[in-house]
Amino acid sequence: MSNLKEEHRPHGTAMLVWFFFASLIVYYLLSWKFLTGIWKVG
Amino acid sequence: MASDNFRVCPTTGLKVDFSAQTLIKLNAFTAIVFLLVGGLLGLAIVLTRWQAVHLLTAELFYRALTLHGIAMLVAWIVFFEMALLYFTSAILLNCRLAVPWLGWLQYILMLVGGAIVTVMVLTGNADVMFTSYVPLKAHHLYYLGIVLFAVGAILGCVTFFATLGIAKTEKTYQGSVPLVTYGAIVAAIIAILTLAHGAIFFIPTWLWALGVIPMMDPETYRLLFWGFGHSTQQINVAAMIACWYAIGTLTVGAQPASEKFSRSAFALYAIFICIASEHHLLVDPGISAAHKEWNTGYFMHLAVLASMMHAFSVPAQIEIALRKKGYTKGMFEWLKKAPWGDPAFSSMVFSVTGFGFMGGITGILYGTEQLNIIRHNTIAVPGHFHATVVVGTTMAFMGITYYVLPLIFQRQVAFPTVAKLQPYVYGVGMWIFCIAMMFVGGFGVPRRHWDITAAESLFKGELSFGPTVDLGFAVVAIGGVLAFVGGAMFVLNAVATVAMGKKVNQ
Ligand code: HEM
Ligand SMILES: [Cu+2]
């Protein structure tokens, strides 16, 4: 892949992949209260 | 071998061995017939689970559910995989098929085995679901049918590997095998391992049904069954991903972004995937918690890693190919200009996204010890696996069929407009169906259940899941019916093409 011309590199896919991971992080941040709550059980 | 056993494909320039071609046709066509049978049963089942319609009687419901599982998960998928094995060995490697009579034996054994099983279920001799958990007992011929089918599948794998050997010694290809063939090799390796696993418990169960063995242990049976049953799903995953790469090449001329990267991902499957089988046994008392956690936690993620690698490289290779065609404006011109009207392409996109986002993520969730305890045996589980094995595997196989028809059957697709729309109808229907089932499962609604209102039971009126679940099931039914229509569009188009499609010029 390294020998690809700049305009042929899969930037769109890379962006979608980053978006996917970013959404996971946002999801974890949003459920932070819930996640920390687990340790208070029992 | 004499050259008159070949024809040269006018589109690809590949030599097509006639016995390979016939076997591909037979296996693919038989697969599609079973898809039709299973689809009709699926419609009847979903219209029974929708309590407002409640179509079938209790007995017929379980019979239909048993045959649906077998016709779909066993017959449609495995017959199609046999066609793929011959395609990725003999055709893609430009080679003759090794030992054609072994291929024929594969087909005959699987057909006879499949027929025996179907007749046993239809005549009410095997209302045991496709899992046939002991002590549920079917007629002994049912197990014999399964064993014959499995032996046939093993012979298919043997023919595949023998063909690879011939291709190598006769140097019919240069360098290493193509990536698609590599994926099929991984599928076939897992298949042989899995089918051997299957023999370990299906043969004793058969003997038990015959009265030779006095007793079967249910926990041992479940452990061995899922050692087989889970791993078979990985054959499907490997075969499906091989189809993704193949469709990428066939539709937009994509080449693997990195051969090493994709091959390593396939290799991870072969090494780690068989290990996560115990996610089916997370609520079983017979296995220790530590054992379950090792099995379904640490080891499984190495296989999941492989899926994520493919999930990056498949879209990347398509993007690169489309950018090379000149669609380089902005981030996403390539996505807009992709061949959305090509049914193979749109099927593949549904397959990648449905398998990854809907099937894969829910699979990881439901497969953890903590969540499984509230999802086990609810209807959320069929919701999950229709996302993997239907939106994922089935749609990938449907997609590649649109190329198998002109290339191998040498017929132009009979109704191109129907073909264009079919993946959208089927895919959207299945998305609705799966999400609604997972939603309803969240309320604890059981799977494999004829009547969740328990109207004919002793504890009348006490079992109610409330109006949200009723509404949810209506959505399940809408999705299911839509998917049935999409499935019918595929099957009828394929059959019409084989019967009366215009011949492709030779
Ligand atoms: C139009 C398409 C389809 C519809 C409407 C449909 C519908 C259903 C429904 C309603 C259930 C029963 C859920 C329950 O009560 O437990 C079910 C189970 C199942 N389906 Fe499908 N299905 C379709 C296609 C497929 C395909 C293509 C496959 C496999 C490739 C498949 C494999 C299975 C399996 C393995 C089961 C589980 C059977 C069991 O619990 O023993 N289905 N399906
Ligand atoms: Cu599994």
Observed structural traits:
heterodimer; A: 42 residues; mainly alpha; 2 helices; 64% helix; B: 506 residues; two-stranded antiparallel sheet; 14 helices; 2 strands; 71% helix; binds protoporphyrin IX containing FE; binds copper (II) ion
Distance between the termini of chain A: 52 Å
Q: What summary fits the major beta sheet of chain A?
A: none
Query: Which protein chains are joined by the largest interface, and how many residues does each one contribute?
Result: A-B, 13 and 15 residues
Main sheet attributes: strand count, strand direction, barrel closure of chain B: 2 strands, antiparallel
User: Taking all residues together, what is the mean pLDDT of chain A?
Assistant: 82
Computed structural class of chain B: mainly alpha
Q: List the uncertain runs of chain A.
A: none
Q: Which small-molecule species are bound to the chains here?
A: protoporphyrin IX containing FE, copper (II) ion
Order of helices and strands of chain B: EEHHHHHHHHHHHHHH
SS elements, strand count of chain A? 0
Number of strands of chain B: 2
Oligomer: heterodimer
Q: Provide the helix percentage of chain B.
A: over 70%
* Count of helical regions of chain A: 2
Task: Determine the N-to-C terminus distance of chain B.
Answer: 22 Å
Overall description:
The complex is a heterodimer of chains A (42) and B (506). Chain A is mainly α and 42 residues long. Chain A has helices spanning 11-30, 32-38. The relative contact order of chain A is 0.09. The model of chain A has no long low-confidence stretch (mean pLDDT 82). With 506 residues, chain B is mainly alpha-helical. In chain B, 71% of the residues lie in helices and 1% in strands. Chain B has 14 helices and 2 strands. Chain B has helices at 18-49, 58-91, 100-122, 140-169, 179-210, 218-252, 259-272, 289-324, 333-336, 343-366, 369-375, 380-407, 416-441, 467-500; strands at residues 6-8, 15-17. A two-stranded antiparallel ribbon of chain B has the order 1-2. The longest helix of chain B is centred in the middle third of the chain and has 36 residues, at 289-324. The relative contact order of chain B is 0.10. Chains A and B meet through helix 1 of A and helix 8 of B. Bound molecules: protoporphyrin IX containing FE and copper (II) ion. Copper (II) ion is lined by residues 230, 233, 279-280 of chain B.
